[in-house]
Design goal:
- By secondary structure, the chain is of the alpha/beta class.
- The protein has 8 helices and 15 strands.
- The strands form 3 sheets. A 6-stranded mixed beta sheet has the order 2-3-1-4-11-5. The protein has a 5-stranded mixed beta sheet with strand order 8-7-9-6-10. It has a 4-stranded antiparallel beta sheet with strand order 13-14-12-15.
- It is flat.
- The protein starts with 6 loop residues before the first strand and ends in a 6-residue tail after the last strand.
- The structure holds 1-O-pyrophosphono-5-O-phosphono-alpha-D-ribofuranose and zinc ion.
- Zinc ion (ZN) binds next to loops.
Length: 299
């Protein structure tokens, strides 16, 4: 098959999104054998190719139509989009799914000894960042004038070197900030991985592959959050329990051998189940509660 008849997806070569993106595709049954340092790989069982590139290049590859799809962090995508607009260009693509992984935030951080109370405290400061357009938009929205120092990496070192008073960088676990004696003062953007599509029209064949892929992506995303929950409960408590537990359809109720007042309840919950919910269930009379992951789901 000609390469142009294969759906082409841009993925991050290395970094926070790489493994998660490949895992998502694998869970969708789209698998690749990737030689080390390869920039390109062919799917073994579907007409799909991946291009492994720097995350910063993914929006451009999709906007230019070099790739049909891309998986990228909203942080990179929005920064690129603002950069394009600020330079008089358009930035067009379709954001077709939020993928719920590689979650992080773009935050302003200060050295531990410096206090911060409100956005006006940024006035006149020098802030180092790799996201000058997002930071610029944030400052403008809040009518604050500050000096943006645009650097492409190791932003967290800038205050120590006396290059900046504060930084604006990605935070996930918070470890990088802590290791550099900084604290997170204010979140300016929440980010997660998203799937974007080029505006170039797809051939019918590619359209069909995309539909198949999206059905599977939706199945994986729905299954990831959902849990299969089993427990015993007094019949009299069932109504109360249903109000505690969100579920897709009516629960399955199974009688228990030799016990009339209690039943076994099976529920698929569309959300993750927190300890608090389990405690509420227990308080309502449930016992022997099991929460199990769901691998795939098609509704
Ligand atoms: C980001 C950011 C920090 C780190 C924060 O870099 O620049 O270095 O992640 O994560 P933590 O809070 O869990 O310590 P990233 O790995 O995204 O690389 P890049 O900015 O060079 O693309
Ligand atoms: Zn990057």
């Amino acid at each position: 098959m000609l390469a142009k008849e294969r759906l082409r997806i841009a993925l991050q070569k290395k970094g926070r999104l790489n493994q998660d993106s490949l895992d998502l595709l694998a869970r969708c049954g789209i698998t690749f054998r990737i030689a080390s340092n390869a920039l390109f790989a062919r799917c073994e069982n579907l007409p799909i190719d991946i291009l492994l590139v720097r995350d910063d290049d993914i929006p451009t590859l999709v906007m230019d139509g070099v790739c049909d799809l891309g998986i990228v962090g909203e942080n990179v995508l929005l920064e690129k989009q603002l950069y394009q607009y600020n330079n008089g260009h358009s930035a067009k693509f379709n954001l077709i799914r939020k993928l719920g992984f590689s979650c992080c935030r773009l935050s302003i951080a200060f050295p531990e000894k410096v206090s911060y109370a409100r956005v006006q405290d940024l006035t006149g400061l020098r802030i180092a960042t790799s996201y000058p357009n997002l930071l610029g938009a944030y400052l403008k929205d809040h009518h604050v004038r500050a000096d943006i120092l645009s650097i492409s990496g190791s932003v967290e070192i800038a205050p120590k070197l006396g290059m900046a008073d504060a930084i604006c960088d990605l935070v996930s676990s918070g470890r990088t900030l802590e290791e550099n004696g900084l604290y997170e003062a204010s979140v300016i953007l929440q980010s997660q991985a998203v799937l974007i599509q080029s505006l170039n029209p797809l051939s019918q064949l590619k359209e069909d592959i995309l539909d198949l892929m999206l059905r599977r992506v939706d199945g994986v995303l729905a299954a990831k959050e959902s849990k299969y929950i089993l427990f015993h409960a007094p019949r009299a408590a069932l109504q109360k329990i249903q109000s505690i537990l969100p579920c897709f359809e009516s629960p399955t109720i199974i009688p228990l051998e030799g016990c009339d007042e209690k039943v076994s309840v099976h529920v698929v919950s569309p959300e993750g189940v927190f300890w608090k919910t389990l405690e509420n269930l227990k308080q309502a009379g449930a016992s022997s509660i099991l929460v199990m992951p769901i691998e795939k789901m098609m509704r």
